[in-house]
């Protein structure tokens, strides 16, 4: 059954379609970018962009649907997705009643090109085009959630390469928090959190070689001490 036929039946029965949308963020050129895919659903959504996503099939969970749609619409696998929020405004989709379970996914700055879609685009969150459905609102909520999580957890690890310098780490925090951080204070207090550790390598720069670090754990950890460094 085609999606258009399915939506017609749903509308007649006055029940809601369950769907997922995935917000994929990455830091590109010192700016938060989000990955968007083309959406063309006449007559309400013509030649627009939106988040990768779609309906949840009868034989899959919302988590599985998010992973599937990300693979189908962004040609990427192995990316961790976390539930963000459930959006259920009655008029969020002009075609029929639809409830979306939104997800948040993060890509390191050296991995964003792994997403391959001939028609998909990375767009700065400060320069979003007019988006379909309520996707601009979903992106806004996702940014607020991310900014909240970085001050009490090690979630920033998912936006950085496997190895990075302290200036690179600080820059990601400054981009997300939208404010400068004192270099000496940040380094001193962040290193006491034990979130990162040195690796036996350095990065060549225009000045002197910079020490490289990596995160001590690949798992998401709640560490309130991060706030003290910010």
Layout of secondary structure:
Layout: H1 3-13, E1 17-28, E2 31-41, E3 45-50, E4 53-55, H2 62-74, E5 81-87, E6 98-107, E7 121-124, H3 135-149, H4 166-177, H5 183-191, E8 196-203, E9 210-215
Parallel strand pairs: 1-6
Antiparallel strand pairs: 1-2, 1-4, 2-3, 2-7, 5-6, 8-9
Mean pLDDT level: 88
By secondary-structure content and strand pairing, the structural class works out as alpha+beta
- From the alpha carbons, calculate the radius of gyration and give it in angstroms: 20 Å
Oligomer: single chain
CATH topology of the largest domain: Nucleoside Triphosphate Pyrophosphohydrolase
Q: Give the domain tally.
A: 2
Termini separation = 52 Å
What is the CATH superfamily of the largest domain?
Nucleoside Triphosphate Pyrophosphohydrolase
Low-confidence stretches: none
Tell me the strand percentage band. Answer: 25-35%
Number of strands: 9
Task: Output the CATH class name of the largest domain.
Answer: Alpha Beta
In CATH terms, what is the architecture of the largest domain?
Alpha-Beta Complex
How helix-rich are the residues, as a percent range?
A: 25-40%
Largest sheet: 7 strands, mixed
Total of DSSP H or I helical runs spanning 4+ residues: 5
Q: Strand-and-helix sequence, N→C?
A: HEEEEHEEEHHHEE
Using the alpha-carbon principal axes, give the shape.
Answer: elongated
């Amino acid at each position: 059954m085609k999606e258009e036929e399915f939506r017609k039946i749903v509308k007649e029965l006055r029940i809601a379609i369950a769907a997922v949308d995935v917000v994929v963020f990455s830091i590109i050129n010192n700016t938060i970018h989000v990955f968007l895919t083309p959406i063309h659903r006449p007559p309400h959504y013509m030649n627009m962009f939106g988040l990768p996503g779609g309906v949840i099939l009868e034989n899959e969970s919302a988590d599985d649907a998010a992973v599937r749609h990300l693979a189908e619409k962004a040609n990427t696998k192995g990316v961790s997705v976390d539930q963000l929020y459930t959006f259920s405004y009655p008029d969020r989709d002009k075609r029929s009643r639809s409830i979306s379970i939104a997800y948040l996914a993060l890509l390191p700055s050296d991995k964003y090109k792994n997403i391959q879609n001939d028609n998909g685009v990375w767009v700065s969150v400060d320069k979003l085009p007019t988006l379909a459905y309520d996707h601009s609102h979903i992106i806004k909520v996702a940014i607020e959630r991310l900014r909240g999580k970085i001050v009490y957890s090690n979630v920033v690890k998912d936006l950085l390469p496997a190895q990075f310098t302290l200036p690179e780490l600080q820059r990601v925090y400054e981009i997300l928090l939208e404010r400068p951080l004192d270099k000496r204070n940040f380094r001193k207090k962040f290193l006491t959190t034990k979130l990162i550790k040195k690796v036996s390598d350095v990065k060549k720069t225009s000045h002197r070689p910079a020490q490289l670090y990596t995160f001590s754990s690949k798992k998401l950890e709640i560490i309130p001490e991060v706030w003290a460094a910010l």
